[in-house]
Amino acid sequence: MRKSTKLALAFMALAGAVGTTAYAENNASAKMRDDMMQRLDEALKGPNGAITFDQFSDAMDSRLKKLVAENGGKLTVGELADALEKARFERMARRIIARYDTRGDGTLTADDITSRQKKLFAMLDRNNDGKIEKGELPKGGRFGRHRQWDGDDGVQ
Known about the structure:
Blueprint: H1 3-43, H2 53-70, H3 77-100, H4 110-124
Helix pairs in contact: 1-2
């Protein structure tokens, strides 16, 4: 492959990565803005439809103030990043547990995992012969809700 072609491909890969990151950051910013506006709307539902600065400040981001207080009045980039990462992974963990937890007790067991695997296998084994053949796999290689599947029990 020519050097100019390699450079062009490398540049396209880099541009794609940067674009994906920017898109994710814009979505995160939009969600933060929406969450902030929702908290503000809730605060404004008071008896007179107005709020003081203290109420406004509490509605804006009390979690951030709590993090600052828990870290001696100052919050470094690393401390904030750690807190954000922990919150993100806790949300992911809650979704996974909710998806797999068959007893509804907030825990995950090997039986829960096996149960979910059996449901997914049954959905993929469209001719019910106890085997999954390539033709039974969803187009695009994605599992979850697909219109082409006859029965959708909501398993993702």
